[in-house]
Design goal:
By secondary structure, the chain is an alpha+beta fold. The chain contains 15 helices and 14 strands. The two termini are about 70 Å apart. Pfam families: HATPase_c, PAS_8, sCache_3_2, SPOB_a.
Length: about 550
């Protein structure tokens, strides 16, 4: 039966670690035992050499070789045996210059020629070797034997039983294997611990599963139409998909860098960095309205998602404008109905002249205001916006007037931008005067004054109101997305799929002004209220302006509209 390979990453890593640990321990043991045998052999030969040198240094040995005959009971045999027993050597053999033994552990060998070649020792050299002799394999040493006058008279051969060396080696093996076993067990326990931790971190997946998940993640991240940005615990960008790079105006080099390094200070940076709490936070980046959410991860980082709500926001504002126009038409319908009833009554009473005079007066007042707007503001979209806002203001009991400095004879490059700016400023002004009238009924008549004028190719838009004004400490924060001085509206009943946040109008105004290279600011109005001023360079057409509706500076910069 064929064994199946483990599929989990933790099981595969455990098997690999155990195999590696076992292999390393076997290799280490073998590498340790190999030199150990050589060291023991060398130690045995060195011991044999020391015994041989000590024996050859005994003057009685050399004197006995010169003065006696080889005999089992001779002085040389007796002294050699004494030394052998004292040193636990295998043998101590003394030979004369002819190679004849004068001592041996076997008495019958005395007087016979040695079994191995003695020429090296008899020539005055010391040798060490492991060899086979009449007593078996031994570690032996041979040294020359000199008399008192320094003449070579023979040699001494000493052997150490090789079995004793092997026994010492074998005696060391169990202890060595025990140490190796303990080390292997410790390595196995460490491998099991690592495997369990890895199993928790990988959720029991296999390498193929992880590879497939990575491929699916890449396809999903770069395929979704929402921006995804991942941060590590230090706040560096760890991952950003294509949509996130597009929405934030970044490139691929932003990965691995801190968020504060790649994004300018502002609400977008604060939201992505987690310094602003909440869900579905609205922010503006590069003229785009984004909905951001941030979710922390277990490793201390976070993942932020970005949804582009620019088109929805634009549609919402268009719906607001349409709703305002509908309210204005509804108000005019009531007003016209009342006036028609008045005319009908005058006609029934026979007051035809009075009826004609009343109709002419109404038509003259309406036509005069519309004609005044059309004469001063030649752009049809802007003039239509002002006429519609005037009707809405009248319905809300607010006077909307043009300042004496209003004059716009130039052709507007992109009227949509000016409509966005002017519409937001007027809407905020109407809300402000309505808020003051609600909180201070004794205040004077609510009034909003609009000024639209041209300074060469620069459009200057100014809207003043008689509302409560903007405190000095809030004059910069009022242009930050998400910040508003308006009271929050009560929640609508039922599920709402998407609601536009508050505090975006003025933020869009400032961003649009900055894109034109201009500015937006708010100051105090004499007598109370606020004055909003927006300067848009190159917003008006001239002879050098391209006819496609974009200033050349913006076309060259490639900024989105």
């Amino acid at each position: 039966m064929r064994m199946r390979r483990p599929r989990r990453v933790s099981a595969q890593v455990l098997a690999a670690q155990l195999a590696i640990t076992t292999g390393v321990m076997v290799l280490a043991t073998a590498l340790f035992l190999a030199p150990l045998g050589s060291e023991l052999d060398d130690a045995a030969m060195h011991r044999a050499l020391s015994i041989a040198q000590t024996t050859a240094a005994d003057p009685d040995i050399a004197r006995g070789v010169l003065t006696t005959r080889p005999s089992p009971s001779g002085p040389v045999q007796s002294e050699a045996e004494r030394i052998r027993r004292a040193t636990d050597a295998l043998y101590v053999v003394v030979m004369d210059a002819r190679g004849v033994r004068w001592s041996h552990t076997t008495a019958a060998e005395i007087g016979r020629h040695v079994s191995t070649d003695p020429s090296a020792a008899l020539s005055g050299r010391e040798i060490r070797q492991i060899d086979d002799g009449t007593l078996g394999r031994s570690a032996r040493a041979k040294v020359p034997l000199y008399d008192d006058d320094g003449r070579l008279v023979g040699a001494v051969s000493v052997g150490i039983a090789y079995d004793s060396v092997r026994e010492r080696l074998l005696d060391a093996v169990p202890a060595l294997l025990l140490c190796a076993g303990v080390a292997l067990a410790a390595g196995a326990l460490a491998a099991v611990a690592v495997s369990r931790r890895l199993r928790r971190r990988t959720h029991g997946l296999g390498f193929a599963d992880i590879s497939a998940l990575l491929d699916e993640r890449e396809a999903m991240l770069h395929g979704v139409r929402e921006g995804v940005v991942a941060f590590d615990r230090q706040g560096r960008i760890r991952l950003a998909n294509d949509e996130a790079l597009r929405l934030l105006g970044l490139d691929a080099t932003a990965t691995g860098r801190a968020l504060d390094e790649v994004l300018a200070p502002g609400r977008t940076t604060e939201v992505l960095a987690g310094r602003v709490d909440g869900t579905d936070l609205l922010t503006v980046s590069g003229g785009r309205v984004l909905v951001a959410n941030r979710m922390p991860t277990r490793d201390g980082g976070a993942v932020a998602t970005l949804r582009d709500r620019t088109e929805l926001e634009r549609l919402g504002r268009e719906l607001d404008s349409t709703q305002g126009l509908l309210d204005a038409l509804r108000a005019q319908d009531h007003e016209h109905a009342n006036r028609l009833h008045t005319v009908l009554g005058l006609l029934e009473l026979g007051r035809h002249d009075k009826a004609a005079e009343f109709v002419a007066e109404i038509a003259s007042s309406r036509r005069s205001f519309a004609e005044e707007i059309a004469e001063r503001v030649r752009d049809p979209l802007l003039s239509a916006l002002l006429v519609g806002k005037a009707a809405i203001a009248a319905e809300r009991g607010v006077t909307l007037a043009l300042s004496d400095a209003t004059r716009l004879d130039h052709r507007v490059v992109d009227a949509r931008d000016l409509v966005t700016v002017l519409g937001n400023l007027i809407d905020n002004a109407l809300d402000a005067v309505a808020e003051r009238r609600r909180t201070d009924p004794a205040a004077g008549g609510p009034r909003v004054e609009v000024e639209v004028r041209a300074e060469r190719a620069t459009a200057v838009l100014r809207v003043s109101d008689t509302g409560p004004g903007v405190p000095p400490e809030a004059r910069e924060r009022i242009f930050v997305e998400g910040w508003s001085t308006k009271r929050p509206a009560p929640p609508l009943p039922g599920p709402v799929p998407f609601q536009r946040g508050r505090g975006l109008g003025l933020a869009l105004v400032r961003r649009l002004a900055e894109r034109y290279g201009g500015m937006a600011r708010v100051t105090a109005r004499a007598g109370g209220g606020a004055v909003f001023t927006v300067v848009l360079p190159e917003a008006l057409a001239s002879d050098a302006t391209a006819g496609d509706g974009l200033p050349r500076r913006l076309m060259a910069a490639g900024e989105p509209q």
